[in-house]
């Protein structure tokens, strides 16, 4: 009888070890031996700086950022800015990690020119006074020939999570004019966005069981879903009609902690971050139907968060090397810091992929802590460290951008102040 009762638990444990054993060992039970700082492009002490809002300290706890490109009539890049979504109140209101204590203080949007200079605050023009604003994922369409751009921002408001639509005019970049609030019964836990047109996008939903559940379920079930790597997240495609109607369709189901999203410049491939399993999933995309077909999986040395393609076609992946440290920072533990790590993921040629023993090779050997120490090599892609820190230089990294023309790397942290700028 005892054996019969124990069998299901043994099977569940075996399944967990098979799927999540590497993550549990390297990113939960062990603190990776990361340096104070490492930057691929040079000496981090000389090449990196942190840009802050020195007066109000509101460039803080920025979860996501994206490039806002200005293009001429021929589609050539004329100017490039970085748009950041920041929420200094994140330690009091976080619908992903908790707590849900005080949703009143609003978050902020900031604009920073890749040419340097002081960051510029972006005011929410026409935004309803009764609306909360807690930005998570955001994406903006390029400005064509000086025309306005559509901006979509995931908003973890007090009652439910919505997606806010704004318009940004290059002639008045200090204002984001509110257009509408998008809602759907399928917006359970929206996290990241990837535009497929100025009025359509993919959106990831990271959890089925969220912190919004009544206590004690909201304290237990989301953690169980995350740590257990339960395949309950998904990706949807959303189109917005001229009247604001939301047209929703499921695109990829059964993803553990579906987080960051990124679409290649030609729109034919979508990358998705599975945080719980520390993996990146690549999908071939049908540009007509928006259907997705899984093609490759690439393991990460950390719990992957947000992802972005650079102009060269490399995927920039950022994440959290040690989950308990991130929890300690979120809980305001005295002296707590959370490590940071960002890598580039580049596709390999078919000839390289078939080399005997290729998947067992060491890789990323220039980094202070090689990614190959924590994750096996991928047959389809090459992984290379761009920046890493034990948290003393820069903490809780969640999003990085790389400008391929200049080589400059930008990074923000979920519970860090400022924008890290590293120039090669």
From TrEMBL:
<protein>
    <submittedName>
        <fullName>Uncharacterized protein</fullName>
    </submittedName>
</protein>
């Amino acid at each position: 009888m005892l054996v019969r009762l124990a069998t299901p638990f043994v099977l569940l444990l075996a399944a967990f070890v098979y799927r999540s054993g590497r993550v549990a060992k390297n990113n939960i039970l062990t603190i990776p031996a990361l340096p104070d700082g490492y930057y691929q492009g040079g000496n981090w002490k000389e090449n990196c700086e942190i840009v802050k809002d020195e007066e109000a300290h509101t460039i803080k706890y920025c979860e996501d950022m994206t490039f806002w490109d200005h293009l001429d009539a021929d589609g050539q890049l004329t100017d490039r800015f970085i748009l950041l979504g920041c929420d200094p109140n994140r330690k009091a209101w976080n619908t992903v990690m908790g707590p849900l204590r005080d949703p009143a203080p609003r978050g902020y949007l900031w604009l920073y020119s890749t040419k340097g200079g002081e960051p510029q605050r972006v005011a929410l023009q026409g935004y309803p006074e009764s609306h909360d604003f807690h930005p998570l994922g955001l994406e903006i369409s390029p400005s064509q020939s000086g025309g306005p751009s559509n901006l979509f921002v995931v908003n973890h408001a007090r009652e439910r999570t919505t997606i806010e639509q704004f318009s940004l005019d290059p002639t008045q970049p200090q204002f984001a004019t509110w257009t509408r609030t998008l809602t759907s019964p399928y917006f359970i836990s929206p996290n990241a966005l990837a535009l497929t047109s100025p009025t359509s996008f993919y959106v990831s939903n990271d959890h089925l069981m969220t912190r919004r559940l009544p206590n004690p379920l909201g304290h237990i079930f989301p953690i169980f879903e995350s740590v257990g790597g339960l395949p309950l997240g998904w990706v949807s495609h959303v189109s917005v009609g001229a009247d604001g109607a939301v047209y929703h369709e499921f695109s990829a189901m059964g993803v553990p902690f579906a987080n960051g999203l990124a679409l290649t410049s030609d729109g034919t491939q979508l990358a998705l971050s599975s945080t719980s399993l520390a993996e990146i999933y690549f999908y071939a995309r049908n540009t007509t139907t928006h259907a997705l077909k899984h093609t490759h999986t690439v393991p990460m040395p950390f719990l992957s968060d947000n992802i972005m393609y650079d102009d060269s076609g490399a995927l920039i992946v950022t994440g959290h090397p040690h989950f308990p440290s991130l929890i300690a920072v979120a809980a305001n533990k005295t002296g707590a810091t959370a490590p940071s790590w960002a890598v580039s993921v580049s596709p390999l040629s078919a000839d390289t992929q078939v080399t005997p023993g290729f998947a067992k090779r060491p890789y990323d050997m220039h980094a202070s802590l090689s990614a190959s120490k924590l994750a096996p090599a991928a047959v389809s892609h090459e992984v290379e460290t761009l920046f890493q820190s034990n948290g003393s230089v820069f903490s809780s990294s969640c999003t990085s951008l790389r400008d391929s023309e200049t080589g400059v790397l930008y990074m923000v942290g979920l519970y860090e102040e400022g924008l890290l700028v590293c120039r090669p």
